[in-house]
Amino acid sequence: RALALVPALIGVVWLGEGAVGKLLVLSQVVLSLQLPFALWPLIRFTSDRRLMGPFANSRLVASIAWSLLGLISLANLTLLYFWMA
């Protein structure tokens, strides 16, 4: 746990106490941008009947999962577009 605190401490010391909120928001933005890259293989692997056998996602669950992945990706692209503009 101490290893995870070191970057936060460096950020607070370097940017000051007023930047804690900005650092928290930045960390959440980075996590939201990484989410589609984690969901893609998760949905592919759990929907593969050869790999998962009887535990594979049904077509309904897979469709909902792919739709959510698309929605999250679209939201991220929209936010990036407005941030860059």
Task: Walk me through the structure.
This protein is mostly helical. It has one domain. Helix 2 packs antiparallel against helix 4. The termini are far apart.
User: What summary fits the major beta sheet?
Assistant: none
The topology string of helices and strands comes to: HHHH
User: How many E-type strands?
Assistant: 0
Strand content: under 5%
Percent of residues in helices: over 70%
Give Rg in angstroms: 18 Å
Compute the number of structural domains. Answer: 1
Regions with little confidence, pLDDT below 50 for 5+ residues: none
Secondary structure elements and their pairing?
Elements: H1 2-15, H2 20-47, H3 49-52, H4 59-84
Helix pairs in contact: 2-4
Structure, briefly:
The chain has helices spanning 2-15, 20-47, 49-52, 59-84.
Name the descriptors.
mainly alpha; 85 residues; 0% strand; 4 helices
